[in-house]
Amino acid sequence: MTDRLRIKLDRTLCDGFGICAKHAPEYFSLDDWGYAVLVGDGDIPERDHDAVQRALMDCPVHAIMELTERRPDDAPIPEVNEPDLDQLKTEDNEAEWGFSR
Ligand code: SF4
């Protein structure tokens, strides 16, 4: 089984250094101002993992992120406990909480 690599680019973080386009020009191009644009849908075939991982790790502002997926063998998602309704502040008990209007 091959590992899947999916990435996304946050253009609001990009500072236009152009390192990504140098490492992986098939997946990153630069716009007229030198900011990176992701080419394609972010799915990276295995043959290009190294180049894209290099771009990801060398981006000085961490604008390139690896998207991870949960797999069946991952740890289970922790259960979210409902809040204790008796402990919640409401209009009915706000005097007990020390607030008044
Ligand atoms: S390496 Fe990072 S900061 Fe530089 S152009 Fe690419 S995404 Fe932008």
Automatic annotation (TrEMBL):
Keywords from the named record: 3Fe-4S, Electron transport, Iron, Iron-sulfur, Metal-binding, Transport
Gene3D superfamilies xrefs: 3.30.70.20
Keyword Transport: yes
Required cofactor names: [3Fe-4S] cluster
Segments of this protein annotated with the region Disordered: 70-101
Coiled coil: none
Molecular function in Gene Ontology: 3 iron, 4 sulfur cluster binding; metal ion binding
InterPro entries given in the database record: Fe-S_cluster_ET (IPR051269)
UniProt protein name: Ferredoxin
